[in-house]
Amino acid sequence: MEDDLAAWLRLTLLPGIGPERQRSLLAAFGLPAQVFAAGRSAVAAVAGADTADLLLAAPDEARIAAALAWAAEPGNHILTLGDTAYPRGLLEIPDPPVLLYVKGDPALLSSNALAIVGARSATPGGVANAQAFAQHLAGAGLTIVSGLALGIDAAAHRGALEQADGKTVAVIGTGADRVYPARHQALAREIARRGAIVSELPLGTPALPHNFPRRNRLIAGLARGVLVVEAAVGSGSLITARLASECGREVLAIPGSIHSPLARGCHRLIRDGAKLVETAADVLDELAWGGSASPPVQPSPRSAARGRKRAAEAASQALFPPPAPETGLPPEQAAVLDALGHDPLDVDTLAARSGLTLDALYAILLSLELDGRISRLPGGRFQRQ
Fold first, then answer.
1. What is the structure's pLDDT at 326?
2. What is the dihedral of CA 33, 38, 40, 42, to 10 degrees?
3. pLDDT for residue 2 is more than 60
4. Are strands 345-346 and 196-199 parallel, antiparallel or unpaired?
5. Is the distance from CB of 148 to CB of 172 less than 8 angstroms?
6. Quick check: 282 and 299 in contact, CB under 8 A?
7. Looking at residues 265-281, what average pLDDT do you find?
8. pTM attached to this predicted model
9. Other residues' Cβ atoms within 10 Å of the Cβ of residue 154
């Protein structure tokens, strides 16, 4: 079995032969060992002389040995396209990876899953929504899939882990032996302990920009549906949603304030036919998921009411340009505006988000109000102007 895996590694670690050509060779000759035994002329007839010459090159014994040693460590696994444990969901995407490096429980890659994705520079409200939805849906028995990125992704993983039996899968754009961003080291360890981290990239692959859009197809393929929490127009989360739709997965989106740039991507998805989501029950209904646990806790009535109000706003025909970025503000004022977001917010919630005492917060709010940057609303709420 180790010799078989070594042949798979040799094929996938060859420079200049990408996944598409790897799959064409496997389709023509069978297992990797048979590809290498086929001979130059046979390979050239299928994939060209250049590919045949690359296959004749000496294998990278050091990288193969390192990958085999990694796979021998407790909790580490390498799944090949020929394994019975290979997730069937990935066989439904146009370009399934030939090899998967998994740290954690590989069975979770074949479980009933929901992907939760969104903006890296998420608002505090978006982070709270992602975490709450992930917690509730993990409690209903769904595995939460995301990308370990800052913002919405991290919140989704953490929300799932808040459930005693919650499971989550992180699909990463680096080698499985690396963690990006580095500040998520502790989160990655917990995901590997209770869930799974998966990558199609060779060990040691650094965080290269072009690898992250490609990993989005794996997020879409592993899940029954994709829930987009916050996304600007042009966000990578919209790529994940498009790929999910092309694979026959459900696409769902949470609406937001018409004043928020991070709601515009979600509103576009909803206009294009995505399911508008206000509660965790909406997600379960769309997925026709009865669950394997007790019914999930839904967001509070106040949160649901805010969601209905946002949905009505998003459906209206009014068009407002997004607010211009705040520049030249003292750091404490900029931090309060960031915590405030784009929807009306009460002072207690704002204090919790900003970490400020009420006395300090009121002083900053007064300055912002006098400058015309925020307005005071009935009920002790504030809103960005």
1. 53
2. -140
3. yes
4. unpaired
5. yes
6. no
7. 95
8. 0.78
9. 23
CA dihedral (377, 314, 137, 168) positive or negative: negative
Domains and CATH numbers, the chain: 1-60 (1.10.150), 106-315 (3.40.50.450), 331-384 (1.10.10.10)
Question: What's the residue count for the chain?
Answer: 385
If you average pLDDT over every residue of the chain, what do you get?
87
SS3 of the chain: helix, strand, coil, percent, to 5: 50, 10, 35
- Token match 């990993």: residue? 215
**Ramachandran assignment for 273, one of left (phi > 0), alpha (psi -120 to 50 degrees), beta (any other):** left
Q: 103 is written with which tokens?
A: 């740290």
Give the contacts of 380 (CB within 8 A, at least 6 positions apart).
Answer: 346, 347
Count CB atoms within 10 A of the CB of residue 380. Answer: 10
pLDDT of residue 163: 94
pLDDT of residue 381: 85
**If you search the block for the tokens 């036919």, which residue do you land on?**
273
Select from 69, 97, 139, 120 the least CA-distant residue to 232: 120
The encoded tokens of residue 245 equal: 């739709």
What is the DSSP code string of 130-166? HHHHHHHHHHTTPEEEE---TTHHHHHHHHHHHSTT-
Cβ atoms 123, 260 nearer than 8 A:
yes
First to last CA, the chain: 64
Instruction: Write the pLDDT tens digit of every residue in 39-91.
Output: 889 999 988 898 888 888 888 999 999 999 999 999 999 999 999 999 999 99
Per-residue confidence (pLDDT) for residue 309, from 0 to 100: 35
For residues 101 and 86, give the distance between their C-alpha atoms in angstroms, rounded to a whole number.
11
Phi-psi region of 21 (alpha: psi -120 to 50; beta: other; left: phi over 0): alpha
How far apart, in whole angstroms, are the C-alpha atoms of residue 76 and residue 122?
32
The predicted model gives 251-278 an average pLDDT of 93
User: So what's the pLDDT on residue 30?
Assistant: 92
Q: Distance between CA atoms of 377 and 257, rounded to whole angstroms?
A: 16
The answer for residues whose C-beta is within 8 angstroms of residue 263's C-beta and 6 or more apart is 230, 255, 256, 257, 310, 314, 342
Q: With 70 as the cut, is the pLDDT of residue 14 above it?
A: yes
The 10 Å Cβ neighbour count of residue 193 is: 12
